[in-house]
Amino acid sequence: MKMLLNRWRLMEVIIDDRDQCSNCQNKKLCPLIRTLKDDVVILRFGRIDVKWCGLFKQKEA
Q: What is the Cα–Cα distance from 47 to 7, expressed in whole angstroms?
């Protein structure tokens, strides 16, 4: 997971395939992703990998 500025100069959360978040049904409600999007917390150095999350719920196919 990393943060990038989009073309409107707003921070955007980018979820990689390595993150457990990419297959999570709660992705839009996730407190981590929401705090990153709302600039409550800021990723300053590099990226983070989410390997285990207590809120993870497998996305239905």
A: 20
| Beta carbons within 10 angstroms of residue 43's beta carbon | 13
Whole-model pTM above 0.85? no
DSSP calls for 11-38: EEEE--TTSGGGGBTTTTT-HHHHHHHT
C-alpha–C-alpha distance, residues 53 and 57, integer Å: 9
Give me the count of residues in the chain. Answer: 61
The pLDDT tens digits of the residues spanning 35-55 come to 988 888 877 777 888 999 999
Q: Residue 54 gets which letter from DSSP?
A: T
Cα 11 from Cα 19, distance rounded (Å): 19
